[in-house]
Amino acid sequence: MSTWLGRDLGTRTVSYGDRDPILYALALGVSPSRLDLVFEEQLRVLPTFGLTLAQWAPDALGSAGAFDTSTAVHGAQALRVLAPLPPAATVEMTARVSAVWDKGAAAVFELEVTCDYFVATWSIFAPGCGGFGGERGPSAAGRPADDADLTLGVTTSPVQPALYRLLGDRHAMHVDPAAAAAAGMPRPFMHGLCTIGMAVVALADARGVHPASLTSLSGRFAAPVFPGDTLEVRAWGSSFEATADGRQAITAGVVAFGD
Question: Would you say 12 and 55 are in contact if contact means Cβ atoms under 8 Å apart?
Answer without folding.
Answer: no
